[in-house]
Amino acid sequence: MSNNTRGALVVVGSGPGIGSHVARTFSSHGFKRIILLSRDPSRLEQDAKFIHSTTPSADISTLSIDLSKTSEIPSALVQVDKALGDTPLEVVLFNAARVGPSTLVEWPMEELELDLRIKVTGCYAVVQWAIPKLLAVKSSHKPAFLCTSGSIYKDPIPEVFSLSVCKAGQHNLIHSMHKKYKEEGVYCGLVAVGGVVADDRPQCNAENIANKFWALYEQRNDLEVEILDG
Ligand SMILES: NC(=O)c1ccc[n+]([C@@H]2O[C@H](COP(=O)([O-])OP(=O)(O)OC[C@H]3O[C@@H](n4cnc5c(N)ncnc54)[C@H](OP(=O)(O)O)[C@@H]3O)[C@@H](O)[C@H]2O)c1
Hints:
single chain, alpha/beta, Rossmann fold, 6 helices, binds NADP nicotinamide-adenine-dinucleotide phosphate, SDR_fam, NAD(P)-bd_dom_sf
């Protein structure tokens, strides 16, 4: 496909790490229309500058969304529809997460519910919005729903059990989507990061993770790729 026929990339949960690096990598491969979403508008502007530093021609919109406020997600997605305009949606990256410790038994159930709202219910809300649009462009584009996962979905860490539980549920959702939509022309897949993301990690650095997302997107076959350091 020629680069100038690419549709839009929407990153749900953009930030200085994986989110903006995936957007920058996809922009360097021809995705010039990019929409970044998270809670902090000023931080999103920094993500946009980071992408522009590599792809000055990128047309970037930044919009606020708080996935923990489930009832507000539909109206936030209407704003994404407005920002898309006539540009077809081609790729979604669901990357949002609250990353941090959660001590078993002491962790309040309300906090577990909040984590589930962001990472599972929030992801499902974006799936409901995105899938009809992605199916609609399957004959002209390479539609995909991508998600950032972690090895904890299958090998939980007790000290971050809340995130582990959410990653298991989220992985299961994307696995169902992979089974259902692969033959229908929409690729659904995950990159499972098996360590803390940092610039000095040989594998688990955001740039390498972004490159793995691009390779997975191009391959359009496997459910996931896992990234491990050592
Ligand atoms: N960092 C790690 O060590 C690590 C390791 C393995 C897997 N992962 C996975 O990688 C993904 C995140 O990548 P990253 O750590 O490099 O972070 P990142 O891409 O730099 O940023 C992720 C963004 O998600 C947004 N977010 C958090 N809560 C949100 C909410 N309620 N609604 C909307 N947006 C929200 C945050 O922005 P706002 O605060 O502005 O909303 C944050 O900047 C997650 O799926 C995480 O589970 C991370």
